[in-house]
Design brief:
about 190 residues, Aminopeptidase, 5 helices, 8 strands
């Protein structure tokens, strides 16, 4: 079992392909809470096909987030060792662990695991106030772009998702965190 420890007792534990189905179900459970609260829709998000695309991407590194021996969430990272511009593609804390500071502890574990990163990037839907607060106010990301119908993201698939419509994909923020230690040579 591959783990990376940090001082917060949150560790990153590699997820193996035979665990992807359970990982996807837990991720969808966590993501669906906000969609249910905002739109009253009770269906799995993101679509399984979108999650699989991330899980099987050649740059992806997939982790369970583990605290005191319990799996509390997960992360899918896109790591580019050549450019050192990495992305937090999918990140979740299971709902029963919200509000305990474990998201920030998990993010700190990710940063510790990838100290050579020059820039981290992620996106989140416009309606996810909890995520926006977390990335900006807790983790130190900056909003650098707002994608919407007037300014679509050319890198994202433009086709409508047939599994769950366009829930949360019509407008979202792109965040960046520049890691000065890596970029500034410190």
């Amino acid at each position: 079992m591959l783990t990376v420890a940090v001082n917060s007792n949150v560790v990153l534990e590699k997820v193996f392909p035979e665990e992807f189905s359970l990982f996807t179900a837990k991720l969808q459970e966590a993501f669906s809470v906000a969609v249910r609260e905002k739109f009253g829709i009770n269906e799995p998000v993101p679509a399984e096909s979108d999650v699989k695309a991330s899980l099987y991407d050649e740059k992806s590194e997939v982790y369970h987030l583990v605290y005191n021996g319990r799996r509390i969430g997960g992360a899918v990272l896109m790591i580019d060792n050549a450019t050192r511009h990495n992305a937090l593609d999918l990140f979740f804390i299971s709902p029963e662990y919200h509000g305990r500071g474990l998201g920030l502890a998990a993010w700190n574990a990710i940063e510790a695991r990838y100290p050579a990163t020059a820039v981290w990037e992620t996106v989140t839907p416009y309606f996810e106030e909890r995520n926006i607060h977390f990335y900006v106010n807790k983790c130190g990301f900056h909003i650098v772009e707002f994608f919407n119908r007037h300014h679509p993201d050319s890198r994202m698939l433009q086709a409508k998702n047939t599994e769950n419509g366009d829930i949360g994909t019509d407008a979202y923020f792109r965040f960046q965190k520049i890691m000065c230690g890596s970029v500034c040579g410190a």
